[in-house]
Amino acid sequence: MKNDLHVRTNFSASASNDCNYEKVLQKLQQAGIERASITDFDTCIFHLVSKIYDISRIYTGTMIPGMECDVFYDGLVFELLAYDFDVFKTFEWSYDTYGTLDMRQTKIKDLLIDKVEQAGLKFDYSAQFNGKSEFGHKFVYENLSKFEQNKELFDKYNITKLSDFYSLSTSNKDFPLYVDLGKVFPSIDKVVDFIHSAGGFVVLAHPFRHKGKIEIAQLLNIADEYNVDGVEVYHPVHSSEDIDYLLNYCQSHHKIITGGSNYNGTEQYNNVGIQNIDDDQIHILENLTAH
After folding, report:
1. Is the confidence at residue 76, as pLDDT, over 90?
2. In what order do the strands lie in the sheet with 35-38?
3. Domain 3-96+189-290: what homologous superfamily?
4. What separation in angstroms does the CA of 9 have from each of 14, 173, 214?
5. What is the mean pLDDT of the chain?
6. What is the mean pLDDT of residues 229-236?
7. What pTM was estimated for this model as a whole?
8. Is residue 235 a contact partner of residue 268, using CB atoms and an 8 Å limit?
9. Domain ranges (residues) in the chain
10. CB-side exposure of 41: number of CA atoms within 13 Å?
11. From CA 43, how far away is CA 131, in angstroms rounded?
């Protein structure tokens, strides 16, 4: 069975603007994906839409309710994948908890600009921001990068790309532009407790994407402490060694094992389906429907 349990549409800011849900469903169908989950960031609006819109005319496989949830823990933001929950209950909770995409990204942008002002950095305050399609961090980083006088800060902290800026501003409290994203995203316990109460289960998303920010063993221990049910073992950024490490962890800790492409229509994630998975390992994903 071909699976993909980590797919995004343009309901997520990280997805291509051309990545509307009908095109995503067509791509899943054409690729022969028999079981899928749309996991947009901090909303399950697609699954609400699918309750009133017959998606089977486009996609004939099994669609599992899903959502990727940003969570906050001790200065670190990471992601949980939620599955198989009550869609109506979860949509209400996600709106109350996260707000809209525009609201979240605008709040992050405003927090960063407050720090920019306090640090006395050069910034074009007339620049227009669209929280429906832009990340607050990307907007601020690109604006700061325009001005030569900000180079001193970038050089001091070895900032050469957006991911450097994002990591520093979210995890290094000594960085002048550090922002407390606990003001934007909920704590891990609140997310796990709610999803469980809505009949769903929770998976730690792509652990090795956070390598360098936190030890992987520590991240897995945090997830275990807060009763996260499983781990996304198969993901494009995970090497074969990473996969073996996570498989051993899941098997020894009795965790659900999932995988997905992280498809979002961008150059980095432009293929659906789980790649490089052995046939004899596919059965472990049956945990999802056995839940």
Report:
1. no
2. 3-7, 35-38, 62-63
3. Metal-dependent hydrolases (3.20.20.140)
4. 9, 33, 28
5. 90
6. 95
7. 0.88
8. no
9. 3-96+189-290, 101-183
10. 23
11. 15
Of 171, 197, 209, which Cα lies nearest the Cα of 75?
Answer: 171
Q: What digits encode the pLDDT tens for the residues 80-125?
A: 999 999 999 999 999 999 999 899 999 999 999 999 999 999 999 9
Question: Residue 254: what are its φ and ψ, rounded to 5°?
Answer: 55, 50
- Smallest CA-to-CA distance from 231 within 215, 220, 240, 222 is with 220
How many CA atoms, within 13 angstroms, populate the side-chain half-sphere of residue 283? Answer: 1
Label residue 179 exposed, middle or buried (CB < 10 Å: 0-12, 13-18, 19+): buried
Mean pLDDT confidence for 120-140: 92
Token digits of residue 246: 């996570």
What are the strands, taking DSSP E only, across the chain? 3-7, 35-38, 62-63, 66-73, 76-83, 201-204, 230-234, 256-259
**Most confident region among 127-136, 198-207, 257-266 by mean pLDDT:** 198-207
| Cα–Cα–Cα angle for 94, 230, 262, rounded to 5 degrees | 65
Segment 260-270 shows an average pLDDT of 85
Q: How confident is the model at residue 264 (pLDDT cuts 50, 70, 90)?
A: confident
CA distance linking residue 71 with residue 190, whole number of Å: 9
Pair of tokens at residue 94 = 């996600």
Tokens encoding 277: 């998975």
For 42, residues 6+ apart whose C-beta sits below 8 A from its C-beta are 67, 68, 69, 70, 94, 97, 98, 101, 104
Q: Which tokens hold the place of 232?
A: 């996304």
